[in-house]
Amino acid sequence: MNQTANVPKGVLEKAASLRELDDQLTSVMAARQVQEFIQGDRLALLVQRAQVLCDESRDEERLLLAALLGRLGAVARNRSGECSGIVNLAT
After folding, report:
1. Is 76 helix (H, G, I), strand (E, B) or coil?
2. How far is residue 86 from each of residues 33, 70, 71, measured CA to CA in Å?
3. What's the CA gap between 74 and 91, in Å, rounded?
4. pTM as predicted
5. So where are the chain's domains?
6. Rounded distance, CA 41 to CA 23, Å?
7. Residue 46: phi, psi to the nearest 5?
8. What is the pLDDT of residues 1-55, one digit of tens each?
């Protein structure tokens, strides 16, 4: 049984915080619609949006960013390189 995603297209890119983006990504993943949301250049847009929303001065935000990028990389399969190596977690 394949559910329809509760998060309409465009909402992921318009998230107001990294936590909100992560929560919305979780909803899309739970609805098994994540491949639709990362097709084409949407993966790069999501990665860029996550970077913009991350407050790099906060350890928790950097950890959440790393986790979010890891989740995206895992579901992107052969496109995981688009998610890796883009954030410097060194303090």
Report:
1. coil
2. 24, 11, 14
3. 25
4. 0.74
5. 12-82
6. 21
7. -65, -40
8. 344 444 455 666 678 999 999 998 898 888 888 888 888 888 888 888 999 999 9
